[in-house]
Design goal:
Length: about 425
């Protein structure tokens, strides 16, 4: 009775661990778990076979029991070696084949039954001990707790060696099964705890690596920011290398270009915090800040640019926001060149129209006394067309002595 109870307890333990490891395999997709699952499943099946085998059953049934033992040991050591990252040598497969051959030969009377059962349990004992020692390779990563699992597996493996000699001892056999079930439970739960501990260590390492990469990204963004701004400064400085060689018209042209470069640099500086933090920028606020920069440089401090926001604040991809800001800058610069600065009356409106964000630019002003500068107008039109093409949308641009009208619909995909 007690022996039957011990077998039942061991079977339930093995079956429970089979389901636990199979569940881990389905969740984690770690192939190592499928080998360990197979080991526990065959270990459980072995006890079903033993419990329902009558005493007068043919010997080949006992041989099948021995083969289950050998296969369970091989799958266990295979799964543990896979889990710990060790390479399983061919010797384990050869040893399993030899132990199986010895067990099968007992059916034909070549070896004694004791030799057959000893071959099977010595193999699984050695496999269990080797699995316990394999876990020691993780002690530097998982700490001293791994020693408990290793010691339990080594003791369980040593316990396998006494099975051939004590299985028929009715006084000891029930205790042997109980000891084996406790060791198997400790082993199974220990492997699970080690697995989660290993995952935790790997997650900490990945988090540290990710933090380092993010810090590197911030450094790279800062470097790009400085390089872009410095390159604009260099270009601006190069414009003034030979000031005496310019005509009056040339100097005016250089001053115009220089002013544009300075404004572009300032607009770029406005976008840098968004590039570093989240790659999004509040659209209306960004346009308003851009207008403040242009008023400071082009309107002599006068309130010549008015913004009407007919939409709620929305986040826009910072690269697209920068292109729209540079587009508006080009429009304002063109108006500043072609019209009398003191008469500039610029209205910029942004609104939501269905699924699109609409930007409308209107400039009412008096033309310069020397008339419209066709060359600058042509350059401005080319730049405006280039910015609009980058935004991948259609636009309306009308430029005359009475003023400038510009309208563009920005796709809803740019916001979010």
């Amino acid at each position: 009775m007690w022996q039957t109870t011990g077998i039942l307890f061991t079977f339930i333990t093995a079956l429970m661990l089979t389901f636990v490891f199979f569940y881990l395999y389905t969740q984690e997709k770690d192939r190592c778990f499928i080998y360990i699952t197979g080991s526990w499943a065959i270990y459980a099946a072995r006890f079903i076979l033993k419990a329902f085998t009558p005493a007068d059953a043919p010997y080949f049934v006992a041989t099948l029991h021995h083969l289950f033992v050998i296969l369970s040991g091989y799958l266990l050591v295979y799964g543990v070696y896979c889990f710990t990252g060790k390479r399983l040598g061919n010797g384990w497969l050869i040893g399993a084949i030899v132990a199986a051959a010895v067990s099968v030969s007992a059916v034909f009377g070549v070896v004694t039954p004791l030799t057959a059962v000893s071959a099977a349990f010595f193999y699984i004992g050695i496999a269990t001990i080797a699995s316990g020692l394999a876990f020691l390779t993780l002690r530097s990563k998982l700490g001293s707790g791994i020693h408990i699992l290793s010691a339990a597996m080594v003791l369980w493996g040593l316990h396998k060696f006494d099975y051939p000699f004590l299985v028929n001892n009715h006084d000891f056999a029930p205790w042997g099964f109980f000891i084996g079930s406790i060791m198997s439970l400790i082993t199974g739960l220990g492997i699970i705890l080690v697995y989660f501990g290993k995952n935790r260590r790997e997650l900490i390492q990945l988090n540290t690596l990710l933090t380092e990469h993010l810090n590197e990204k911030d450094s790279l963004v800062n470097e790009i920011k400085h390089r872009v701004y410095n390159n604009l400064q260099i270009i601006d400085s190069l414009l003034y290398m030979y000031p005496d060689e310019f005509s009056k018209e040339g100097k005016l042209f250089v001053e115009t270009i220089s002013r544009r470069i300075k404004i572009m640099g300032t607009i770029h500086q406005l976008s840098v915090p968004s590039i570093q933090e989240e790659s999004k920028v509040p659209f209306v606020r960004f346009i308003r800040n851009t207008i403040d920069v242009m008023e400071t440089n082009l309107c002599s401090g006068n309130d010549c640019i008015k913004l009407f926001a007919g939409m709620d604040e929305e986040n826009v991809n910072v690269s697209k926001a920068l292109e729209m800001a540079l587009l508006l800058h080009e429009l304002v610069s063109s108006s500043h060149i072609n019209y009398e600065p003191d008469t500039l009356d610029i209205i910029i409106s942004v609104s939501r129209l269905g699924k699109n964000v609409t930007i409308e630019y209107t400039c009412n002003a008096s033309p310069r006394k020397e008339g419209l500068q066709d060359g600058n107008a042509a350059v401005s039109e080319c730049l405006i067309a280039a910015f609009a093409d980058n935004l991948d949308t259609d636009y309306i641009y009308e430029h005359s002595e009475k003023g400038t009208v510009f309208r563009i619909n920005v796709s809803d995909e740019l916001t979010g």
